[in-house]
Amino acid sequence: MVLDNLGTSLRGTLDRLSGKSRLTEEDVQEVVKEIQRSLLQADVEVSLVMGLSDSIKQRALEEDPPGGTSARDHVLRIVYEEMVSLVGDSTDLPLEPQTILLAGLQGSGKTTTAAKMAWWFSKKGLRPAVIQTDTFRPGAYDQAKEMCERAEVSFYGDPDADDPVTIAREGMEATSEADVHIVDTAGRHGLEDVLIDEIEAIEKEVAPDHNLLVLDAAIGQGAKEQARQFDDAIGVGGVVITKLDGTAKGGGALTAVNETDSTIAFLGTGETVQDVERFEPNGFISRLLGMGDLQQLAERVERAMADTGTDDEDWDPEDMLSGQFTLKDMRKQMQAMDKMGPLDQVLDMIPGLGGGLRDQLPDDAMDVTKDRLRVFEIVMDSMTDEELENPRSVGASQVQRIARGAGASEERVRELLEQHRMMERTLNQFQGMGDTDMQRMMKRMEQQGGGPSGGMGGMGGGGGGPFG
Asked: Is 248 left (phi over 0), alpha (psi -120 to 50) or beta?
């Protein structure tokens, strides 16, 4: 996750402030140093880091904590508000007919981003179409076509054509019934004049409503010059940050936003077409600071339920807290969680679980890839109802029978049973939180649909982020 070490390091520093009613200058300086260290390591430009830290320091020393607010929570609120201000608002992309032009260097993830954005718009009830104009990169047409088929959205491209402007014009005509046109342009290894000239010509042809710059989260300090040149050529109205599922630092994106005086539109968080999020500054910063993001979590749960055919009655978050669940329950939850994305991303969205508790879980506690899930389902299909209801009763002879019936190895069957025990232990660990924090949070999430007005882990009340 972008800037992921910020939340961890800052939480440790803030925890040392627990119990204090007022902060000393040394306390504030320690917090500021942690923020500076994390942001600089994430390749955020020095001037941005210094401006942010100066604002935090000034406010923390001059403002008095509101009545009943600890010094720790007061400085956390200041950090939150200043960082939200730094990343800015989300790019204005209304759910209405529009044309979006994507620009960026080769390898930035434009082609994947085009399909992801089209999928996102389709889930919002619009009819999107992707137009692939890249005639430079071998395989661009095939990749775009395949990604759009996975996203189940309209696609236009011409692998035999040489002129990207002609492809753009014919593509707009061929997909005229679409509500949203997403035009993917060619990239190069550098900002060559021919790339800029080509993008300018395509922009003139399609007259986009929005020009979005696609940036690899690992771009680093190179983002400033790249953003400036694209902005000079076509004007950048928003930024898409890709590949946030790896070890990328992501700070260059903040630099690009600042350089172009634009905003962030989408975040790419994985390899599949569903791994995309509309950027929301409140939730984004809340996640960075370990305070969760119930809005994104609710959206992922809703998506998982729709994709797996699970209705509201079948999906009860408190089932995961009971510590007593069968292999049938495990199958249902594994399918839904697989749809929701990597577990570490999901946990980052749950207030109170993104930090310390998550770090205590086994690395493979819920490591359920699509391949493993497929094998596990085959194994489960070879088990009796009694075995599914009580997996601890399965002995050696039953393992042999189940393996033969599934056409799998006995090791696979034992792996499934061990996975169940591991998930049970993990859920028991959640259950150890009792009837207070965890269950109250889950109930609140259910009742309020995960919106930001619900507060974050007991930290606030009204709308406008975790503090109300």
From this structure: beta
